[in-house]
């Protein structure tokens, strides 16, 4: 499930730390990473319309030079790497290249306004999550600490340290559950499982949750189970923070009246408002 990853990048300040956090997926079967840089045709169009000089060949050359650091790092970790530079509408290019390369996962990150501000979902990440039928890992967990009197930002060094798995007992949650053993192989040892109750009896949900806990424990995890009542996205976000989870794993219903435009409201809100990385499985 993690054998081949597509990693689109704009070479922003978080891109390389995110890439470094992915190498532990080798133990979960990762063999190849496709690095993708998309020349945004809309940005090029508006630049030309504004009378700004645009040199496509120079943009490609600059992208190739920046990719060298990424390429060298991945090769030093004994991973196969393919680099691609395309042009077009960014979201469409990412989704199309993911299908063309037959990848098993798309990894994208959040951008940030400045160091002390929150990370936020960019339009590209949002569009990829909505349009792609593949699992998407959105990496955004970071910490800001005082070290030797200076405010220092540290990117999550162990993305798969502790996972929070959310379930509503649907087929989408079942699909997401299949990734739990792979995350164990990637280094995760603690799992927090949660069901936010909206309907059904408390006793029935307790039985299901206990059975799920025992199932995941057989994989090797230390498991903490939680049955909560409330608004699902708020409870999931709060629990992830309380438990200091490094990753939220959840299925996506893909609900909405226009296919490919709306994803499930709970996963959409968790993705937007949580400060933790999220793996969305459809």
Q: What would you say about this model in short?
A:
Helices cover 38% and strands 28% of the residues.
Task: Give a description of the structure.
The protein has 282 residues and is α/β, with parallel strands linked by helices. It has two domains: 4-155, Rossmann fold (3-Layer(aba) Sandwich), CATH 3.40.50.620; 162-281, HUPs (Rossmann fold). The chain contains ten helices and 14 strands. The protein has helices at residues 15-21, 41-49, 56-76, 90-100, 123-131, 171-177, 180-185, 202-217, 232-242, 265-273; strands at residues 4-8, 32-40, 80-88, 105-109, 111-112, 119-120, 136-139, 142-147, 150-155, 162-166, 190-197, 222-229, 247-251, 277-281. Strands 3-2-1-4-7-14-13-10-11-12 form a ten-stranded mixed sheet, with helices on both faces. Helix 4 (90-100) packs across helix 5 and helix 9 (232-242) packs parallel to helix 10 (265-273). The longest helix has 21 residues, at 56-76. The protein is globular, with a radius of gyration of 20 Å. The chain starts with a strand and ends with a strand. The model is unreliable at 112-121 and 255-263 (pLDDT under 50).
């Amino acid at each position: 499930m993690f054998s081949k990853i597509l990693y689109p990048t704009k070479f922003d300040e978080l891109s390389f730390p995110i890439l470094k956090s992915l190498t532990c997926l080798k133990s979960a079967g990762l063999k190849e990473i496709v690095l993708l840089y998309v020349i945004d045709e809309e940005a090029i169009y508006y630049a030309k319309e504004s009378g700004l000089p645009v040199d496509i060949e120079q943009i490609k050359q600059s992208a190739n030079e920046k990719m060298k650091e990424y390429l060298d790092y991945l090769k030093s970790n004994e991973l196969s790497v393919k680099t691609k530079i395309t042009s077009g509408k960014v979201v469409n290019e990412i989704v199309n290249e993911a299908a063309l390369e037959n990848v098993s996962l798309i990894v994208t990150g959040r951008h940030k306004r400045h160091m002390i501000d929150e990370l936020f979902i960019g339009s590209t990440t949002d569009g990829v999550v909505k349009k792609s039928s593949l699992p998407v890992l959105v990496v955004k967990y970071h910490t800001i600490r005082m070290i030797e009197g200076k405010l220092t930002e540290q990117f999550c060094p162990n993305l798969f340290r502790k996972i929070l798995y959310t379930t509503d007992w649907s087929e989408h949650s079942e699909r997401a559950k299949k990734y739990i053993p792979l995350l164990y192989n990637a280094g995760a040892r603690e799992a927090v499982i949660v069901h936010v109750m909206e309907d059904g009896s408390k006793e029935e949900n307790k039985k299901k949750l206990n059975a799920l806990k025992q199932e995941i424990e057989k994989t090797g995890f230390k498991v903490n189970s939680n049955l909560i009542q409330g608004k699902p996205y708020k409870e999931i976000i709060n629990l992830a923070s309380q438990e200091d989870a490094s990753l939220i794993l959840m299925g996506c219903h893909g609900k909405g009246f226009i296919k490919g435009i709306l994803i499930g409201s709970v996963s959409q809100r968790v993705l937007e408002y949580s400060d933790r990385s999220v793996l969305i499985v459809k």
